[in-house]
Each structure stands twice: as structure tokens, then as C-alpha cells.
Write a structure and sequence with these properties.
single chain, 185 residues, alpha+beta, four-stranded antiparallel β-sheet
Length: 185
């Protein structure tokens, strides 16, 4: 479910290929994905960009992703299936791809997410099962945004990042690791 969320946020299906491009600083994350799917080639450096890409064709993976609602041209229309909407792993993947998790200089955490109406609404509904936030979110251009701050973000961070999740974007996990350790203990 983590990788389904991450691909829903940051993946692209085009010409029967799955492609994920990330900033150079997140190269290790592409390596984790490569190992997860058992792909033999290393991510390649993009010309004229500080980014790496992994791209391949797999009918099985494309069919599996379709079960998660992940299809070509999903960016503005993606609506996660119900079984995904209940998973902290799925939402950690989505937020790692198209969101933020951080602790500000004031020591208070923020969790934010941007995406299609269906994805942001699904995230908002999941968050509201964890905390009594009244945050509404909104629309910016053709995407939707939702974020929570302070005490409302704590149970969300604990659900998404607490314990020992197998997959996560290292820099986002590190951004809140000290905060998590304090609140878990």
C-alpha cells in the first residue's frame, strides 16, 4: 500500500510504462522501489535536471496499479479506492510523494497534502478519524490542499510515521523522527 500511495502521487503511466522521477537528493528512494519490484537496472540521471528516473514496462504491474485506481492521466482525477483510504501506509506514500511532514522552529508539527479532489478529500476524512481538527483545506489553481498543524498533526504523524514502517522517504522521516521518539516515549 505504501508504494501504491507513492506511485499515485509521484508516478506516471505513459506509453505502457511506469515512470518515477525524483530529485537527486531522493535517489535512495528510487533504489528502494527498484529493489521492491525486483527491477534489474539502476535509476538513470536526467539530462539538464537534478533528478533521477526509473522507467520500465510491466503488464502485471500496470494491471495491479489499476486495482488501486492508478491509471494514465490520473493527476487531477485520482480517487483512491476505499481499501486504500483506511491505510496509514497508503497515506504515508501519498504524503511522501505530494505532501509535507515537518516540525517547525516552534517545535510544532505540520502535515500537508496536495492533489486531486478525491485524494485530498480521502486524506482529510482519514485524518478526521484520528483527530478533531476543523481544518477544511481548499483549492489552489487546479489542485486541492489540506494541512493540519500542532496538536492535530500529532496523531496523524504517529499513525503514518510511528513504529517501524518498512518504507518511507528518508528525508521526511528524519524531519519528524526526534519528534516521534519523544511522543512515543
Amino acid at each position: 500500500l505504501y508504494w501504491a500511495g507513492f506511485i499515485a502521487a509521484d508516478g506516471c503511466i505513459f506509453n505502457n510504462q511506469l515512470s518515477i522521477s525524483l530529485q537527486t537528493r531522493d535517489l535512495d528512494h528510487l533504489v528502494k522501489f527498484k529493489e521492491f519490484v525486483g527491477y534489474g537496472k539502476d535509476p538513470y540521471k536526467e539530462k539538464d535536471r537534478e533528478a533521477y528516473t526509473i522507467k520500465f514496462s510491466s503488464l502485471k504491474i500496470r494491471k495491479d496499479l489499476a486495482k488501486y485506481g492508478i491509471t494514465p492521466r490520473k493527476s487531477l482525477t485520482y480517487d483512491p479506492p476505499k481499501f486504500c483510504r483506511e491505510s496509514a501506509d497508503f497515506w504515508r506514500g501519498m504524503v511522501d510523494g505530494d505532501g509535507c511532514v515537518r516540525v517547525g522552529l516552534d517545535g510544532k508539527p505540520t502535515v500537508g497534502f496536495v492533489g486531486s479532489f478525491g485524494a485530498v478529500n480521502g486524506f482529510k476524512n482519514w485524518v478526521r478519524k484520528l483527530t478533531d481538527t476543523k481544518a477544511q483545506g481548499g483549492k489552489e489553481g487546479n489542485i486541492y490542499v489540506f494541512s493540519i498543524y500542532g496538536r492535530h498533526a500529532i496523531p496523524v504523524i504517529n499513525q503514518m510515521q510511528g513504529g517501524s514502517p518498512k518504507y518511507f522517504l528518508d528525508r521526511k522521516r528524519e524531519a519528524v523522527k526526534k519528534f516521534i521518539d519523544v511522543h512515543e516515549n
